[in-house]
Specification:
This protein is of the alpha+beta class. The chain folds into two domains: 203 residues, Alpha-Beta Complex (Spore Coat Polysaccharide Biosynthesis Protein SpsA, Chain A); 235 residues, Jelly Rolls (Sandwich), CATH 2.60.120. It contains 15 helices and 25 strands. The strands form four sheets. Strands 10, 13, 14, 16, 21, 22, 23 and 25 form an eight-stranded antiparallel sheet that branches. The chain has an eight-stranded antiparallel sheet with strand order 11-12-15-24-17-18-19-20, with no helix packed on it. β6 and β7 form a beta hairpin. The protein starts with 21 loop residues before the first helix and ends in an 18-residue tail after the last helix. The structure holds 2-acetamido-2-deoxy-beta-D-glucopyranose (2 copies). This is Glycosyltransferase family 32 protein. Keywords: Membrane, Transmembrane, Transmembrane helix. Belongs to the glycosyltransferase 32 family.
């Protein structure tokens, strides 16, 4: 299923509900329903009603589902249906993938292989059914093929079932095929960009399961992971609602509608919380967590969706096993365990730190010497011993060790991931930059940007700006201090020191930038909020949306080397003591001491 783009819709007025349907599973003992199932059903309904009333009296608020007042066209359709009962007592351990609806000769990407491999290794299914129309070709598919039971399907009808609405996009056809296949066989449907993290055996006793997309299901219930018994009642109702299908409404029938229906048929569906299948999300924060940061360990995930269509244009472009082995992003740290193993190299572990364990509070040190690997992006190596992680995309090195890296001003950047609990204050970032006049300096370019969830501290060639998230999604510039960067083709040492605005004083302003030992910018009370630092950008900052072409308007062409980051505010004394022999001109008088 393509990613669900756009901003967050308003949260739906219900939250995670995981009503078990295990009691109903006792109803259907044999694989085929016989006439005898009706009597226990009556008893079940009677006992259920009595228990419901008892629970209502005992726990009125926690046990009563909200009684939504909303009425929508699909609700009537779903309510009119009297679904036949599921035909098995538990969800069969059959995995289903649907692929190859767009021909001819589709190929499989590495992420698809890893999706299949993750289902194979972690779900231990009896069968992995690969429903295709055009059979994929190529070496990656050949590698996956032994795990698969191939099943050719017709292209989905180009009109929705139970109606005559046109369904022409292959993604919507895939939506219909998955429901068909689940209704027929039952099992675990997975999109080919879902990575299974752990066994789901404990879920198989349920009738029908979906997971929340967004916190509290704010987007809906995503159809990229569905577990179902054959003829699950909710599934049948959902299929019938395709009578109102409108292909202009991209994710309505696939994500939004199941969320709306679930509130009315809560006894027929088990809802997993937002971390079970679809976290991190497809928004900038989520994609950054997956592909750039190294701070998420998937401990609360049964699976994760990597949002292929949002990540492919940029973040996941050119994904190869070698990238997965060498780039330590949250996702790749997990994926590398699924790669075909040549038995030679041990799988490199990924250490996730909450804080720097060093007594000098050094978080990381990146000399930025040439990388011997021919990878793009390539890893930027931290020499502090903390195993911090860096990603260099489209960086250029000269052979000389001391030249640093050139970021071209195109989609070219260095991103450094930080410990999970590192905050904006106190913090010191020191780096060496060389700017030439060719190409002309872009005033809006990014020299460096510290990214938190609530605030961005953005150093541009003309100013130090703070940007704050207002109303939950609008970034607004909240302060600006002028700062110029000489384009003199010389390396200069810059040091940004951040104190908490609350503890700042004349001698230790909340924000100071030094160039070669001189204060070049400072502010007593810049308006920034202290937040967890998600990462630090050099050369270019995060675009508004990762699925769009890279926004080069905030890019700067410049050279960088010797980046050091401390989880404390270094004093001038510290800087003069030359903490890493990198601060050359600190004996110059600073105005702070005048
Ligand atoms: C959400 O679901 C996952 C997977 O079932 C579980 O590990 C996690 O503890 C749940 N989180 C909450 C807050 O219930
Ligand atoms: C890191 O932050 C989390 C969430 O704020 C907190 O629960 C945890 O104790 C912190 N850990 C450390 C080592 O500071």
């Amino acid at each position: 299923m393509p990613s669900k783009r756009g901003s967050y819709p308003a949260p739906l007025p219900y939250h995670q509900r995981t009503l078990s349907s295990s009691s109903s599973s006792k109803l259907y003992k044999s694989n085929k329903p016989s006439g005898g199932w009706k009597r226990p059903l009556r008893w079940f309904l009677l006992i259920g009603t009595i228990m419901y009333i008892a629970l209502y009296i005992l726990f009125p608020s926690s046990s009563t589902p909200s009684q939504p007042q909303d009425h929508f066209a699909e609700l009537a359709i779903a309510q009119q249906l009297h679904p036949s009962p599921p035909t098995t007592a538990s969800i069969p351990k059959i995995v289903h993938f649907v692929y190859g609806l767009k021909g001819p000769d589709p190929t499989l990407d590495w992420i698809h292989y890893l999706s299949i491999k993750s289902a194979h290794d972690r779900l231990s299914p009896t069968t992995i059914m690969f429903h295709y129309h055009y059979l994929p070709t190529g070496p990656v598919f050949d590698l996956a093929r032994p795990m698969l039971t191939l099943h050719k399907v017709d292209l989905a009808p180009t009109t929705a079932p139970f109606g005559d609405r046109p369904v022409t996009h292959f993604a919507h056809q895939a939506d219909l095929i998955r429901l068909d296949v689940l209704n027929h066989y039952g099992g675990i449907y997975l999109d080919l960009d879902v990575i299974v993290m752990r066994s789901m055996d404990h879920l198989l006793r349920h009738e029908f399961i979906m997971g929340q997309e967004g916190i509290g299901g704010s987007v809906g219930l995503c159809n990229a992971v569905i577990l179902a018994r054959p003829q699950a009642r909710f599934l049948q109702r959902w299929q019938h609602t395709y009578r109102t299908f409108d292909q202009a409404d991209w994710n309505y029938h696939s994500v939004v509608l199941p969320g709306k229906l679930a509130r009315h048929f809560y006894g027929e569906i088990t809802i997993m919380n937002h971390t079970a299948f679809f976290w991190p999300l497809w928004d900038s924060h989520g994609l950054r967590t997956l592909f750039l940061e190294k701070n998420y360990d998937f401990a609360d995930n049964l699976a994760t969706h990597v949002w292929e269509s949002a990540a492919t244009p940029h973040l996941m472009a050119g994904l190869t096993p070698s990238l997965i082995r060498n780039i330590d992003s949250s996702l790749y740290c997990q994926l590398r365990h699924l790669l075909p193993h040549d038995g030679q190299e041990p799988i490199r572990p990924c250490r996730i730190l909450t804080h720097s364990p060093r007594s000098d509070h050094l978080v990381g040190s990146w000399p930025l010497t040439p990388v011997p690997l021919t990878l793009n992006p390539s890893p930027a190596t931290d020499t502090s011993g903390n195993d911090m992680h860096g990603i260099l995309r489209n960086g250029f090195f000269l052979p000389n060790d001391d030249d640093g890296v050139y970021l071209s001003g195109q989609d070219s950047y260095l991103f450094l991931s930080m410990p999970t609990n590192l905050t904006l204050t106190p913090l010191t970032i020191q780096w060496h930059t060389k700017i030439t006049t060719q190409p002309p300096v872009n005033d809006q370019g990014t020299v460096m940007m510290v990214q938190t969830d609530v605030c961005k501290l953005w150093i541009k060639p003309g100013a130090v700006e703070t940007w704050t998230l207002t109303n939950g999604w609008v970034w607004e510039r909240t302060s600006s201090v002028p700062l110029s960067f000489p384009a003199d083709d010389q390396y200069h040492v810059y040091t940004l020191v951040l104190h908490s605005p609350l503890s700042s004083s004349l001698l230790a302003p909340a924000l100071v930038v030094y160039r070669d030992g001189y204060v070049v910018a400072s502010s007593q009370a810049p308006t920034f909020e202290n937040g967890i630092v998600r990462g630090i950008w050099f050369g270019s900052a995060e675009p508004a949306k990762y699925q769009d072409p890279w926004d080069t308007s905030a890019s700067l062409a410049a050279w960088y080397k010797k980046i050091n980051i401390w989880e404390r505010a270094l004093t001038l004394q510290d800087l003069r003591n030359d903490p890493l022999q990198s601060f050359k001109n600190a004996d110059h008088q600073s105005w702070l001491l005048e």
